[in-house]
Each structure stands twice: as structure tokens, then as C-alpha cells.
Design a protein that fits this description.
This protein has 287 residues and is α/β, with parallel strands linked by helices. It has two domains: 112 residues, Dihydrodipicolinate Reductase, domain 2 (2-Layer Sandwich), CATH 3.30.360; 122 residues, no CATH class. 39% of the residues lie in helices and 25% in strands.
């Protein structure tokens, strides 16, 4: 069996680039959605806000400066090939990439070392949150994003039971967005995780916010639910920046997982219009 090696420094350099890029360059999916929303938004104030968001994102890209002052807590989803060997410590290589991005890239450092008591800033935005899945192959794919907490704080999870049915699932999602109101800086992206366990559905919801909003769940039933929820959310009237209008959300992404016969957990992770995520694949060299 063949095995492949990847240098730890390559991992560090890749992670650094991903976090700088995702904070400077908004994805095409978000930019296209903002431009389309501007054309269909009925509120004059809403159109003005969308114009400002588009201009902001274009200036950030042109000048390579953060598109939002909250450059987020670093989150990574890693698909780690089972035939890959790292010539060093993978965890530390990732953390060093985050460290270098936030220091060298002049990104705001927002992580504190203890959640309740001292709450001292770590001064380099580490540690990052790393979700790793072992897959077959000779590459490592890394998807990285900075998650701001104005929207993160509006997220929620509920351990529904099967008796709630699809209507209970929809009600919880819509209630969560309604409760969030204008707080998460709309227009938002709504990530939904359904199934698994308590922690698994929350992870799925976060992963859903990292999925391009111009894609749909491959299951047509969930794809239809994504569209239905998006329509219902945009009827709430919060609009861009919460100042009124039809563009409260740009997209709803749903990810699912098998679950226990007695459970139907649902998590909603809300992301502001600065839905930042970039991906890269590192190919291993044959040993």
C-alpha cells in the first residue's frame, strides 16, 4: 500500500492563507446573492443597505482588509486522507497557521482563554476549533472560516422527539430566526443540522453555514424544505440590517445525519451576511 507525506509547514501556510483570504474576499455565492437581492428588494432602505454591503465587500477585496471588524473565531472542517503522514504535529501546524493569519494579516483577535472567570485574550485568536474526519485518500482538504459571535449568539439547539414531526422542526427553526430578529446582522445564512446526537447536530448546523448558498441538499425533500424555510424567513420583514424589507436571509442550508429511534435533535446556526469560508486541498507526496 502506498503512503504519502505532507510537510507540517505546508499545512501552516495553507491555513494562514485560507483565513486571510476568507476575511478579505467574500465568496461569489454571497456576492451574487447580495446583488440579486438588491434587484428584488422592495424597500428603498433595504436596497441602500445592500448597496453598502456590496461596496464594503468590494473595497475589502481591493484593499485586502477585513470585510468585518469581527474576524471571528477560527473554525475548520478537515477531511484527512487515511494514507497521509504529516512530518510533524498536525494540530500545532493548524494552530500556527491561524496564529500567523491573525497576527500577520492584522485580523482582530477575539479569543479568550477561559470562558467564565479570567477571560484573558490569547492575543493570536487561538485555539481554533478543528473538526476532523478521516476519509480514504492521499490528500487533506481543509475548509476554514471565521465565525463572528453577533450571529453565533443567536443560534440554538433543541432535542425534539419524533412526535414533533416536520411541522415541529419547521416551527423551531422559524422561531429561532424570529427570536434572533435583527441581532445577527441580516441578511443572514441559516445553517440547520438535523439528526445525530446533541453535539453532532450542532456540528452539522455549523458545517451547513460553510456550504455555498447556491447549492442544495442532495435529498429533494430537504432541498424543498430549504426553499420553503427561506421563503418563510423572508416574510418576517426584518430586512437588510434589520431596517425592514424582504431580504432577511440569503440562504438556508440543511445537513442531516442518522439518529436514535427516540430522538430528532435540531440545531440552528445563524451566520451574518459576512459568511466567510474558503477551502483548499493539499496533495501528499508519495513516500
Amino acid at each position: 500500500m502506498k503512503y504519502y507525506t505532507i510537510k507540517a509547514q505546508t499545512v501552516t501556510d495553507t491555513v494562514k492563507r485560507l483565513f486571510m483570504d476568507c476575511n478579505y474576499f467574500i465568496g461569489d455565492d454571497i456576492m451574487n446573492a447580495l446583488k440579486c437581492a438588491k434587484e428584488t428588494e422592495e424597500s428603498e432602505t433595504g436596497r441602500s443597505v445592500l448597496s453598502q454591503l456590496i461596496e464594503n465587500d468590494e473595497l475589502a477585496a481591493a484593499e485586502q482588509i477585513p470585510l468585518c471588524q469581527d474576524t471571528g473565531m477560527a473554525v475548520l472542517f478537515v477531511e484527512y486522507g487515511d494514507k497521509v503522514c504529516i512530518d510533524g504535529d498536525f494540530e500545532e501546524a493548524v494552530q500556527e497557521g491561524v496564529r500567523r493569519a491573525y497576527i500577520d494579516g492584522c485580523l482582530r483577535k477575539s479569543v479568550v482563554d477561559d470562558p467564565v472567570f479570567e477571560r484573558l485574550n490569547t492575543k493570536d485568536n487561538t485555539p481554533a476549533i478543528i473538526h476532523t474526519r478521516i476519509v480514504s485518500g492521499s490528500t487533506i482538504k481543509i475548509t476554514a472560516g471565521g465565525k463572528g459571535f453577533g450571529s453565533e449568539n443567536m443560534s440554538a439547539i433543541k432535542m425534539l422527539t419524533p412526535s414533533y414531526g416536520i411541522e415541529g422542526v419547521k416551527k423551531f427553526i422559524l422561531d429561532t430566526v424570529m427570536t434572533a430578529g435583527p441581532n445577527p446582522c441580516p441578511p443572514i445564512v441559516v445553517g440547520v443540522g438535523i439528526g445525530g446526537t446533541f453535539e453532532r447536530c450542532a456540528q452539522l448546523a455549523k458545517k451547513a453555514t460553510f456550504r455555498s448558498i447556491d447549492t442544495h441538499n442532495p435529498d429533494p425533500r430537504y432541498a424543498e424544505l430549504e426553499e420553503e424555510l427561506l421563503t418563510d424567513i423572508n416574510k418576517m420583514g426584518f430586512g437588510p440590517a434589520g431596517l425592514g424589507g424582504r431580504t432577511t436571509a440569503l440562504g438556508v442550508n440543511i445537513e442531516t445525519s442518522p439518529t436514535h429511534i427516540a430522538g430528532m435533535p435540531v440545531a440552528v446556526n445563524i451566520c451574518c451576511h459576512a459568511a466567510r469560508h474558503k477551502s483548499a486541498e493539499i496533495k501528499g507526496e508519495e513516500l
